[in-house]
Amino acid sequence: MSRDYSSFNFAERLIKQKGSGSHIIVGVLILIIGIGAGLAINNSWITYGSLVLGISIIISAFLMIIKQYERAVILRLGKYHRQVGPGVQTRLPFADNILVVDVREKVSEFKAERMLTKDNVPVTIDAILRYKIIEQRAKDAILNVENFNQMIQQVSQTTLRNNIGSSLFQDVLSKREEINQHIKTTISSEASNWGMEVTGVEIRQVIIPQELESAMSMQAQAEREKSARVTYGESEVLVAQKFLEAAKVYADNPVAYALRQSNMLYESIKVQGNTIVMVPSESLNSMGFGNLGTTIAYLESTKKAVKQQKSKDEPQQEQPGSK
User: Fold this and answer.
1) Read out DSSP for 54-86?
2) How far is CA 166 from CA 163, 169, 171, 212, in A?
3) 208 in helix, strand or coil?
4) Structural domain boundaries of the chain?
5) This model's pTM is above 0.70
6) What CATH number labels 106-208?
7) For the segment 157-194, what is each residue's pLDDT rounded down to a tens digit?
8) What is the average per-residue pLDDT within 293-320?
């Protein structure tokens, strides 16, 4: 863990120092050497040039430039003096120590590895944290904590572990927004003491063991099969109810029942074409076709109806080809 934090600090250390007395020392040396050399060789250009250059460097030692996304804290003789914003600012060489911090929003990754949920399910959580330093309280981020990046990283990881340990596994999967909000609120209460604002926390990935993932897949499949069987059973009940209603109608009207049987026989012959269809004699008797002559006449009329239907369908099928 220490290795991770060291790389984190090396990559994202945002506090830097500006200014020292080196400018004045360089400027004084240029003045002494330049003026002495100019007088020694009696060259006024070297004298005036070194004079202008040395004075410019000495004046620059009293000035500093702060960028738009930076805030600077001035420590005069080791004591907090003031906080300044972007632009050209003044300082006292040797007396002032300038600490500059970046106030732009930052993103940090953190995770909880092999944590047990409340129902003893091992999970690994990968999350991100978005935060920034409050502009008016940049001095708190510098003076109240040694390394705010490392501190907020440790607090985020500890808060995530505590929250996962007190939550059920199903809640971790289905209530991410609530967990994100709870973690954000907890971290914000801690980070406010350091002049920092937490803008967002998001759980990116929940990793579970492979065997548990397979068991969850089997459970989901079983649930789908259960739902399909229930739906099929409900449809069978609806079909049975419709059949019951139809039976009541046919029981009160034998003619309708005979017509229905005739239609079913016609449809079967129409589908089969020239194939011989065996029809039980009981069905013919119930439809009134008990004698052979009547049955033959009915079958002949059915065949004619089928042929007429085919003759009507053939011209319709030839028309698209002719075009």
Assistant:
1) HHHHHHHTTEEEE-TTEEEEEEETTEEEEEE-S
2) 5, 10, 10, 20
3) coil
4) 17-101, 106-208, 212-247, 253-308
5) no
6) 3.30.479.30
7) 888 888 888 888 888 888 888 888 888 888 888 888 88
8) 63
